[in-house]
Request: fold
Amino acid sequence: MSTFNRGQKVLSELQKIENSARSLRPKLRLVAELLDKEWRISSYFCEIKGPRWSYYAGDVDFVMPLYRIQLTDKYGLMTDQILIPADDWEAMLALIRRIIENTKEAA
Reply:
């Protein structure tokens, strides 16, 4: 599958996750699984509490992140690598931010 087609497929899957009735944590778990499946990127999401980034959802076995990406004031993404063309990566991050901003957390 070409990089362009893969990027479009991932964006389509992210939109399905966004439109699902799930709460935030399960959605972010699915996003992390999708990144691993399609791009072999291990990742997890963190809740940001001041200087501390606390695990929230994603790959629980992932140990050593190389990248720490703040997505919103409250949530960030830790990942080991970014093997995605820059345009696809930015589009995915924008959609992930939208998922976070538009999804309620479970009570």
About this structure: Strands lie at 43-49, 52-58, 67-70, 75-79. The chain has one domain: 3-102. The two ends are 40 Å apart (CA to CA).
